[in-house]
TrEMBL record:
This is 23S rRNA (Guanosine(2251)-2'-O)-methyltransferase RlmB. The gene is rlmB. Residues 2-76 form the RNA 2-O ribose methyltransferase substrate binding domain. InterPro entries: Alpha/beta_knot_MTases, Ribosomal_eL30-like_sf, rRNA_MeTrfase_TrmH, SpoU_MeTrfase, SpoU_subst-bd, tRNA_m1G_MTases_N. GO terms for cellular component: cytosol. GO terms for biological process: methylation; RNA processing. It comes from the Bacteria. GO terms for molecular function: RNA binding; RNA methyltransferase activity. NCBIfam families: rRNA_methyl_3. Belongs to the class IV-like SAM-binding methyltransferase superfamily. RNA methyltransferase TrmH family. Keywords: Methyltransferase, Transferase.
Amino acid sequence: MKIEGRNAVLELLKTDKEIDKILMQKGAEGSLGRIFAMAREKKVRVQFADARLMDKESETGRCQGVIAFVSEYEYADFSKLCAPKEGGRLVIVCDGIEDVHNLGSIIRVAECAGADGVVIPKNKSAQVTGAVVRVSEGAANHVQVARVPGVNYAVDELKKSGFWVYALEADGECIYDCDLTGDVALVVGGENSGVSALTKKKCDKILSLPLKGKVNSLNASVALGVAAYEAVRQRR
């Protein structure tokens, strides 16, 4: 897998993940110097290339002069996300998030909000690729992402483990009137279909954000950001 972009590679170098090599553009400046220094310190092989080769190797077309080559993404154990923890747990469940940019943004929100992990289904969902890692600005290198057979399975298991599971959808209870302390899982749906009907039935509540404008919905990652930080606010 290729991890592209300066921030994504910098965050990768802060982890213990094994890096096969780093391809870096000749003559590039700025934060690439810091990446090179960190790579040398960790004894990661750095290979220099001209801009034409960098463009050829890039899968996103926006590598910013650096590409790291790593093994395929290693998903977290879902059962560990369900394990008891002091102080309350926060887990994000993705239902039908098929766009890599949305998934990357959701992972970034989850990491910044201190969520314990993100859950995605194996089918009908974007998976963690190099593009997702880049969009997440490297957050995918730090937050645990678990894959499950299906979203409804995840909801059932989380509820068995003591979580309150809330779907983020329209026509629900105002999120600001809900207690988001304790063990909470937030289910966010895809851009077109939202949270599926059966999943909404399985959730403890449907929570909504107050919309004051003429547009009737927010982007999935933006809605999650508001909800996740309401949970952060309540836990302070």
